[in-house]
Amino acid sequence: MAIPIAVLDCDLLLYGRGHRTLDRFDIETVSDEFLLSTFGFPREFICYLVEMLGETLSRPTQRSRAISPEVQILAALGFYTSGSFQTRMGDAIGISQASMSRCVTNVTKALAEKAAEFIGFSRDQATQQQAREEFYRVAGIPSVMGVVDCVHIAIKAPNAEDLSYVNRKGFHSINCQLVCDPRGLLLSAETHWPGGLLDTAVFQQSSLKRLFEEQDSHDGWLLGDSKYLLKKWLMTPLQYPETPAEYRYNMAHTATHEIIDRTVRAMQTRFRCLDGSKGYLQYAPEKCSHIILACCVLHNVSLQTGLDAWTFERTENPEQSEEGCEPMESMDSEAFRIRQELIRNHFS
User: Required cofactors, per record (predicted)?
Assistant: First the structure.
């Protein structure tokens, strides 16, 4: 009687030590609809990733049989977009669950290494000016360079009983501080902060704050909600608006700041591994932070290759902190003057 054999990650059973790679899945044999529904991205984008990461993923390995870059990328995309190592995903491309996990690790590392190339403020003047104009068209706030907020991504409890990852809602998480432009393109992504840190503490320790504090002058400002500290380069809403102009400013601030919330919702819908409703990331915090960063890179690469940021937007709000407003004693007097001048000149 024939004994069925499950998909095994064993080179010797299939090809012996002389075979270098095994192309278990041929992307050319399946439809565009299958690729989009199974892996979350169209054929052209997947091929672009293979071209971009192929050399890195083809590095020599101690294993007797390497998995092709194409299959590694499909495995990782399958995980990022579904949030699980379901057997059907491995079956679709012909690899085991253990191999799926290794592929995700390899591709995640390769994408994270590309973060500085695809995420950053260092863009040409024309692009920066276009972003300011697009932000202005949203609700009339001038000179906006980006909108900033934090979002919590659920993770499993670390092996060590580290309470620093327990957030104010009682679950373990990574607190990620993100900045985006009016199209949803990420300009900054800090994905490594323990969930127990409040947004204000993340901001105070962040590379974002250091970047702007080290600049002698600023051509504009970021927008942050009431959890953030008012800075000359970071405009926040007024805690207690009194005049019609102040109310109009707050409404404009809310409408413009909503872009970062929309971006996070779209990312969590496209990358289900970041969506707490699909379960938390089953890795140590460091690896979770790398997976989140890899998804941020993929998000930006997809935008820069012509995909729409809002295609997968959902309606429910992402997990965010619930912190109080900025205390008056921490107010930067020069920043306060700049905000009042902004309100007077544009909302009176």
Answer: a divalent metal cation
Read off the pTM.
0.86
41 vs 74: CA distance, rounded Å: 10
- Please tell me the predicted confidence (pLDDT) of residue 8: 38
Backbone angles phi, psi at 6, to 5 degrees: -70, 165
Q: What is residue 278's predicted lDDT score, i.e. its pLDDT? A: 64
Q: How far is CA 194 from CA 72, 128, 166, 211, 323, in A?
A: 29, 32, 8, 21, 16
